[in-house]
Amino acid sequence: MRTALRRTFSALDSYNYRLLFVSELISHTGGWMQNMAEAWLVLTLTHSGAAVGATFAFRFAPVLLFGLWGGAIADRYDRRTVLLVTQAAAAVLAVALWLVVLLGVAQVWMVFALAFAVGLVTVVDQPAHHAFVEEMVGRDKLANAVALNSAVLNSARISGPAIAGLLIAATSVAWVFFVNAVSYVAVVIALAAMRRAELRPLRHEGARPRVREGIAYAWSITEIRATIVLVGVVGTLVYNFPTFLTLMASETFHGGAGLAGLLMAVLGVGTVLGALAAAHRARQSSRTVLLAAAVLGASMLGIGALPSKALFFVALVPVGAIAVFFGATASAHMQMWSRPDYRGRVMAIYSLLTLGMTVVGGPLVGWISQHWSPRISMGFAGAATFVTAAALRLAGSGRGAEVGGVVELAPTADAALGDLTHTHAPVGDGPPVGPYLEVDGPLREYDVTVHGELVEVEAHRPHVGE
Question: Which residues are registered as beta bridge partners of 408?
Fold first, then answer.
C-alpha cells in the first residue's frame, strides 16, 4: 500500500510542486465554482437553457479565438512570471463580478462581458500552467506530475460547481464570486514562495515562437493525433457538466441550486477515483486514451437513458471517474510526447479543444436540452464520443506496443550526437550495451549516457510508436 501511494504521489517530493499542487487545487476549484455560479445567475435572469450554454461560450470564446497565441506567449516568456500576472488579473475580475452581483445591479450582458474578460486571462494561463510542470519536477517525474496536475484540473472542473451549488443554496450567488477571488491568492503566494534555485526554466533562445510552427509540430507527432481528435470531441460535447446537470436539476428533476450542487457533488466522488487512477498510471499511451474515450462515451449514453433519479445519482460516480481519467490521460499523453520548447503551444491546443470548443458545444447541448431534454443531450455527447473512438481504433490508432526499458544505439552513434536520434533501436528490458538510452515512457526526449558523460539529446521523430 505504501509503495502504491508513493508511486501515485511521487511528484509531490518536489517542494515547488507541492506548493503549486495545493494552491492550484484551491484556485481551480474556485474558478469552476464561478463558472457554475455564472450559469445559475444567467438561468435566474433569463430562464433560458441556451443562455446558460452561452455563458460558457463567452467564458471560453477567447480560448477558441486566441488560445494558440497564448501558447506562444507561454513558450516565449518565463512561465512563473506569466502565471503570477494571470492569477492576479483573474482575481481582480472575480472581485468585479462579486461587487456587481452584491450591489444588485447585475444584468446578463455584464455577466457575459466579465466571462469574456476571464477567458482572455485563460488564454495565457492554461498553457503556462501545463508547461510549467517540468520546470518544477524535472524529466524523471514529469509523467507523474502531469497526471497529478491533470487530475487536479479535471477534478476541479467537476467538484467546483458542486461546492458552488451548495454555497448558493446556503447563502447567495454573490459569495461564490468572492470565494473565487480569494482562491487566486493561494497560487500567487505559492509562486512567490518557490525556491527558484530548484526550478529548471526553459532557455529562451532563437526566433520568437510562432503559432503555425506549434500546430505543425503537434500534428507531426503521429502518436498523439488520435488523442487530439478525441480531446476535441470530448471537450466540445462531454465537458459541459455544469450545463448538463444544472438543466437536469431544474428541468428534469424540478429542483433548485441545492439539487444541482448535490448532483455535482456525487459526480465529484467519481472524480477522486479517476484522478487517483490516472496519477498511479504515470505512463500513458494512445491505446489507453482510446479505451478511456470509448468507455466515457458508453457511460454518457447509459446515464442519459436511466429512467429514475436514484439510478442517475448512482451512475454519476463512474461517469465522473472516467471523465477525469480521460482528461488526465490525454493531457499527460500530449505533454510526454512534446518537446519543452513547444509544450506551451501543444498544450494550448489541448486548452483550445477542452475549453475553447465549449463555445460551440455549450449552446448546442443547451439547445438540445431545451428542445428535447437534458437526457437526449447527454446521450448525443456520449454517442459522438464512442463512435469517434471506435472509428479511430478501426483506422489503426492505438495498436502499437508501449515502449520502455533499454534502447541500444549503433556502435558508431557516439561519433556525432546528432546521429543518435537516427540509429536507436529497441532491444527490450535486458542489460544496457553502451551507448544506450534508458526509457521510462515515450521515445521522445532523453538523457543519454555516452562514454559515461550525461548529455541531452533531442529525438524529433521516434522510430518506434507507442
Answer: 425, 436
Q: CATH code at 108? A: 1.20.1250.20
Domain assignment of residue 4, yes or no? no
Whether residues 351 and 440 share a domain: the answer is no
How far apart, in whole angstroms, are the C-alpha atoms of residue 296 and residue 302?
A: 10
Q: Which of 374, 394, 414 is the last residue of a domain?
A: 394
State the CB neighbour count (10 A cutoff) for residue 9: 16
- Give the HSE-up count for residue 143: Cα atoms under 13 Å, Cβ half-sphere: 20
Taking the C-alpha atoms of residue 243 and residue 380, their distance in angstroms, rounded to an integer, is: 14
Find all residues with CB under 8 Å of 422, minimum gap 6, and list them: none
**Which residue has cell 533499454?**
406
Residue 37 belongs to domain spanning? 9-394
Note whether residue 399 is domain-resident.
Answer: no
Same structural domain for residues 115 and 249? Answer: yes
pLDDT (tens digit, 0 to 9) for every residue of the chain, 466 residues total? Answer: 666 666 677 788 888 999 989 998 898 889 878 877 887 888 888 888 778 767 777 888 898 888 889 888 888 888 889 999 999 999 999 999 999 999 988 888 999 999 899 989 989 998 888 888 878 887 667 767 877 877 777 667 667 877 887 888 888 889 999 999 999 999 999 999 998 888 877 666 666 778 888 888 888 888 888 899 999 999 999 988 877 888 888 778 878 777 877 888 788 778 777 877 777 765 667 888 999 999 999 999 999 888 888 889 899 999 988 998 898 888 878 887 877 778 888 888 998 888 888 778 877 888 888 888 888 999 999 999 999 999 998 887 765 544 433 344 444 444 333 334 333 333 334 343 343 444 444 444 333 433 333 333 433 333 333 3
**Run of H or E including 436:** strand 436-440
DSSP per-residue letters across 143-186: HHHHHHHHHHHHHHHHHHHHHHHHHHHHS-THHHHHHHHHHHHH
- Residue 439: strand pairing partners: 405
In a domain, 466, yes or no: no
Kindly state whether residues 332 and 443 are assigned to the same domain.
no
* Cis preceding linkage at 435, omega within 30: yes
Contacts of 196 (CB under 8 A, 6+ apart): 80
In a shared domain, residues 429 and 354: no
**Domains of the chain: total:** 2
